[in-house]
Amino acid sequence: MPKKYVLTGGPGTGKSALLLELERRGEYVVREAAIDVIFLSQAKGIMEPWRDIDAFQDEIVRLQLHRERNLPSDLGRVFLDRGIPDGLAYFKLKNVPPTTFVFGRSGVLDYESSAFFLEPLGIYNQTKTRRESQSEAEELGNLLIKVYEHIGFDIVKIPPLSVEERANLILSRINQ
After folding, report:
1. Which residues have CB under 8 Å from 83's CB, separation 6+?
2. Which end of the chain is more exposed for a tag (fewer CB within 10 A), N or C?
3. Can you give the CATH number for the domain in which 163 is found?
4. Cα angle at 82 between 45 and 31, to 5 degrees?
5. Are the beta carbons of 60 and 37 closer than 8 angstroms?
6. What is the DSSP-derived secondary structure letter of residue 26?
7. Can you say whether residue 159 is alpha, beta or left, with left for phi > 0 and alpha for psi between -120 and 50 degrees?
8. How far, in Å, CA of 80 to CA of 74, rounded?
9. What is the pLDDT along the chain (176 residues), one digit of tens a residue?
10. Using alpha carbons only, how large is the chain's radius of gyration in Å?
11. Whether 93 contacts 49, CB under 8 Å
């Protein structure tokens, strides 16, 4: 079973770009499930699938779990663009109780004990999939730290450096 390293942070903090850099360097990566759920929903005519937060987060968790459970067994490690706990922060952001959210530290999450939290880059743009305002993105970042710490993760903050420097920092940290 590969070691799973979570890259998390608010929207627009460079997680996807960092994942691409890690992949370019030969690392195995799992892309963010939420973007794929949004694209598929929109292709089916549901333009704002996030409006039903329970169904939306449930679909994200199902896809994320599917991807994580179907990793090649011979991998040494994998980097995840968000982890299962990220969904809980989205519920908290919307002040909605996670009624159908599949969540638990034991049995479901077999991540390494540190989560890499990408600090904001200092620039933020909304897109079709990044719909949060800048203030919501910042609040979400704070909630993500609280969620991960609450369930026992050590947070490793990755400052707003170049994508290459961020990749170097993460790889040096896990190769110690």
Report:
1. 4, 6, 8, 64, 109, 111, 115
2. C
3. 3.40.50.300
4. 60
5. yes
6. T
7. beta
8. 17
9. 899 999 999 988 999 999 999 999 999 999 999 999 999 999 999 999 988 888 888 888 889 989 998 999 899 999 999 998 898 888 888 787 775 555 543 345 789 999 999 999 988 576 666 677 778 889 999 999 999 999 899 999 999 999 999 999 999 999 98
10. 15
11. no
- The answer to whether residues 92 and 30 touch, using CB atoms and an 8 Å cutoff, is no
Mapped onto helix, strand or coil, the DSSP state of residue 27 is: coil
Q: How many domains are contained in the chain?
A: 1
Per-residue DSSP letter, 50:
G
End-to-end C-alpha distance for the chain, whole angstroms: 20
Question: For residue 151, what are the domain limits?
Answer: 3-174
Separation between Cα atoms, residue 99 and residue 122, nearest integer Å: 34
Q: Packing angle between helix 53-69 and helix 33-43, nearest 10 degrees?
A: 120
In angstroms, what CA-CA distances link 15 with 51, 71, 72, 107, 155? 24, 20, 22, 26, 15
State both tokens at 134: 């800048």
Best CA proximity match to 112, nearest among 17, 24, 4:
4
